[in-house]
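Methods: example folding runs. The two proteins below were folded one after another, and each record is reproduced exactly as written to the output file, sequence line first and structure-token line second.
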Amino acid sequence: MNTEKVVSRINDIYDKTKQDLIELVAIPSVSASSFDQTQMDRSAEWIAAKARALGLTTEVIKIKTESGLVGRPAILATRVAEPGKPTVLLYAHHDVQPQGKTELWDSDPFVAEERNGRLYGRGAADDKAGVLLHLAAIEVADPGVGITLFIEGEEEVGSPTFVDFLHKYRDTLKSDVIVVADSNNWKVGVPSLTTSLRGVTQLDVKISVLDHALHSGMYSGPVLDAVTIASRLIATLHNDAGEIVVEGLEQRDETTVDYPEADLRQDMGLLEGVQLAGTGSLTSRLWTKPTITVIGMDVTPTDVASNTLIPSVKFTLSMRVTPGQDAREAAKALEKHLREHVPFNAKIEINLNEAGPSFQAAQTSPTTELAKWALKTAWDVEPVDIGVGGSIPFISDLAEVFPEAEILVTGVEDPDTRAHSENESLHLGDWKNAMVAEALLLSRLGE
């Protein structure tokens, strides 16, 4: 199929596809267990109906693992390849993050609203746009190539049954090319392939100094409170430049793309005058160097604070791991540092609650070159190979279970998307271009 025909057919179905996305956003499919899980069922059945309408053999699956875990609903839809044609696995996820503080949204998070070329709503970009992107490409592309559509339902809660699903349905999922539509573009108007992802590990740390709270006027002085001890310990993780100083963590200063500081500040919403942390190129700090972040701390809220020495405190560290380093080995290095640097011999307890692998794509291949051609054709701009500082551990799982498949990591997000935050949005122009690119890719693979 020539490019003009693909563009024409995408134009024909675009308004319908956008309306479909609006309908899907309206289903609050939050996979966190504290939310109504019947909405996950609604979302899965909605997508399954669309897949069946395209002629795909479709089922909604809640896998049960040997350990007793029951997965959230996933959609598995297939079309057999014609003789001699490859099979392509198209991945996205239909579950979303909680909406956060509703008052911080400019519109209802589950009523998609179009403003200035962007569609706002929870999941509008991450990742319901990916779901509709795949459905549109399947509808438009020339038949012939085999299709396996895998829409997961628990990516936002760590994909706890993902590996079990891959093994149980291995024969159905086996494919020549895997397209994961759950990443970013370099910026609005510039498409990307994601070639590396940092790993992730998360530690819960508890610091204790007393067996009960004490009157701060009577007993402060001979002992520091647990929050102060924890703060001093956390401060040992970085030097004055903000560079991590934990021994055993790999660090790579590699970059092929320039990220102007002014653009980064604007994209991040960095307050005026705040200095950037770390050393080396900005893209290496974002993509290939490790980071350690305090993402939670159990401290007495200020509105109920009293004059007492806090006896113990718990905090959570999230560490992003350099692509190529084992996440569990990095976690061990971080734990060793914490135990060796805890001030005043305070009692410390550490629990590892997450260790997700990194991803490093293989060198260029005919398939990646074809994907770049499709992106360039759709956007009329040269695509950029990027790393992503975030982690998508299941991509490494896919690579391990299907080592012969080529994995292409694409996406429709951009620096303004605010995935997981309030006012999440999708740039509609880039989304339309992504439909064209994927339809071109499927058609060419079928040839």
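Second run, written to the same file directly after the first:
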Amino acid sequence: MTPRQTHALRNRCAGPVSRRSFLEVGALSALGLGLSDFLRFQSVAQEAGRSLRDKAVIFIWLPGGPAHVDTYDMKPDQPIEIRGDFRPIRTNVSGIQICELFPHQAKIADKFNIIRSVCHDFADHGGAHKRFMTGRIPATPTEFVNDAPAVTSIVSRMIEERHRGALPPVIAGVDDGRSQIDVFSLGPAWVGSANTPFMVVGDPSSPKFKVQNLGLTPDMERRLDDRLHLLSGLDRLRRDMDSSGMMSAMDRFSQRAAGMLTSDAIRTAFDLSAEPVSVRDRYGWSAYGQRGLMARRLVEAGCPFVTMVWENPFPSASMPTGCCYNWDSHAVNCHIFDDSRWRFPVYDQAVSALIEDLHQRGLDKKVLLVVTGEFGRTPRLEQKVGTQTGMTQPGRDHWPQAMSLIVSGGGMRTGQIIGATNARGEHPVERILSPNDLWATVYHHLDIDYNANLNDFSGRPQPILPFGQPIPELLPPA
């Protein structure tokens, strides 16, 4: 039975759904204590003076790095060893052309912007992940363990006082086996381990998918009810004895933990089966599509920052020979154009559906969408023997000197191309930008002061962003 058939059958005969039937407890403790602690450690005793103002970010991460000259910065007039197999097509915005395998995006190019001039100096995946995810120059050019906090941890720390929802402030969606905090350089470094993303692990397009880190097993519900009843009495006693206000803050986050375990609204935010089949079809029955849909549902439910990792579009199925698990399109890993013919249509469907959905639901001012990898790929093709095929095939190596990414929402003017590379796509020649300028834009959108400091473990103030300015073309009109 296909995922669509399974979904349709479930919709025809759903039956009553109790809180015990939705999800299982995973990595957190047997009585929700770990979740309560997770939330409590993100708190302070004092209440914040201002709200989040309903802003959110969806960050789509494409590990391995898409080839800019095969996607959004094509060079059709160059020799075949640079331009590759694909040709550009026109979009609904005059003067903007993108890859022929992106027909859905071509129809909605007026709803997003293409940035062609972000660059940095780290060609290793580990160094590039750290450079991009932290907004800092990493101490070492390789490996994935951060020596500075990832942006996800900075966001969690900076909005903790004003985030009122039961959902964690930062949620990440990853494949099975990819949830370790250092896989994508999401380590918190000196802001502390409490400020790490809540991981949603697995393929949400699979009929067997369930959120592993949230919910109750059947024998847990009765025990949790008893525990909450007992704690309510203890908390009242402690509040009567407490004059500092700390207990009130702890109570608030214990309540949020219980809310995540028992709230219909929170459970529904993760439940993709609540969406019409037509919506799930539009996103596509892939990990890309269903993670994109989950991201939209989570920001609507009140999560301020959702990052979804798009690696293998179909992790629950066998990968075609000659293709790559993620976007790391070396010739030894894959035939880059065969891989693109398999991957690009899935990506095109998912990202265009997400952009359209945000606009159609009136979220294009509230939600800022960023879609990027850690670097681009070499403009000149390489030819090597593939480890899967045993045949000489084309690929592209790492290339941080130039890359392309797309952004949408955030109230910005769209239908723009920002920056340009030289004729061969080797380096920017207009509007040279760094990942820090992108993060300054993200912080600005979330009303986070990107010039602020946080104390490290030794008590020394550290800037949350050592350099960079918001990109003016991405800011809402005054």
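Comment on the second run: Residues 6-52, 243-250 have pLDDT under 50 and may be disordered.
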